[in-house]
Write a structure and sequence with these properties.
Blueprint (H helix, E strand, L loop, with lengths): L1 E8 L3 H8 L2 H10 L3 E9 L5 E10 L5 H7 L2 E10 L8 E10 L3 E12 L2 E12 L5 H29 L1
Antiparallel strand pairs: 1-7, 2-3, 3-4, 4-5, 5-6, 6-7
């Protein structure tokens, strides 16, 4: 199932990147959906190429019943991000991989932070897949809206965070 989202934040790519790798911000967005931030690790300097590993526990209360039958009351989600160094115009790109413990879901996406004057256009494209025979497509279809909302929430909350901090 394809993921696609785009939004614009009226702040520079540098500021948006800094928020996306701020542990307090990640804790805030995790708690906003009723989850917890279990751990966060940053490898490298955000001024260049770097990577992050974020582990969250999130409730499944908003997931469709078909998906909840497989995964239970909560999910442990590990999000790996491999960020490229900034382009000449300051734009950035990261490859995102989500692994869901105990659930047959894989998410792979590319997030682009495109410099647009003093603003940043955040573009996200990727895929949600499931390895369950026969039901994999239905599981991925059911999970895709939730995964898309979760990844898009980060972009939406970045603006509010920047304006309040």
């Amino acid at each position: 199932m394809a993921l696609s989202a785009s939004t614009t934040v009226p702040h520079s790519v540098d500021l948006v990147t800094a928020v996306f790798v701020n542990e307090d911000f990640l804790r805030h967005t995790s708690e906003l959906v009723g989850g917890t931030l279990e751990s966060f690790a940053l490898d490298g300097d955000p001024a260049g190429a770097f990577s992050t590993t974020t582990v969250r526990t999130i409730p499944t209360t908003r997931m469709p019943d078909i998906a909840r039958k497989f995964v239970g009351e909560s999910l442990k989600v590990t999000q790996l991000e491999a960020w490229e160094a900034p382009a000449a115009d300051g734009s950035r790109q990261s490859k995102i991989s989500l692994k869901v413990s105990g659930a047959p879901l894989d998410v792979n996406a590319v997030q682009r932070l495109v410099s647009d004057g003093g603003s940043t256009r955040i573009e996200l494209e990727g895929n949600v897949t499931s390895s369950v025979p026969f039901l994999g497509g239905k599981i991925a279809d059911a999970a895709e809206p939730m995964v898309g909302k979760a990844l898009n929430l980060q972009s939406q909350q970045a603006q509010a965070w920047l304006e309040s901090h």
